[in-house]
Write the C-alpha cells for this entry.
Amino acid sequence: MCDRKEITRNLGERLEVYLKCDDVRTYWAKEVTFDYGSLNQSRVDYMLFKPVNNSTSGIEKGDFYCYEIKSSVEDFKSKNGHNFLGDYNYYVMPQDVYDKVKDFIPFYVGVLIPSVDNNIGVYIIRKAKRHNRDYSLPLMLLMMFRSANRDKIKFKVKAKVEEGV
C-alpha cells in the first residue's frame, strides 16, 4: 500500500496531465494562496482559469476551476483543504476514497478519479455545478499568477544549481 504522500504526488501528477490540455487559452497554477498573512489564509491545491475567448469580455466571462486533492478518508475528514473558491470546484481522489465519502461531498462539488485504463490522467466521475466564486476575477488571476511565478522562480533556481552556477 502506498503512503499518503505518494498517493498525493501521484494524484497531482495525474491532475497536471488533465490540466495540460490542448487549449492554449487555459491557464493553471498549483498551491494558490488567498488572504496570505491573515488568520483566514487558505490554499487551493490547483486552480485553472478558462476564458471564453481572448477578448476583454471573454476574459471577464471566464471561469475558475479549483481542485483539492484528497488522498485518504482521513485527509478528506481533516479540516484542511476544502477551499472551494472557484466557479467550478472538484475533489481529486482515489476511487476507494470516493466510494467512502461520496455522501459527504457538497452537491456542487465534482470529483475526479484516476484513470484505470492507463497509468496517467484522471476523469470526471461527478461533474461540478456552478457555484458563486468568493473573490473577484482580478484578485483570483493575481493569486494564480503569483503562484505560477513562484514555481517559475523555483524551476530557474533549481536549473542553476544543477548547472553548478
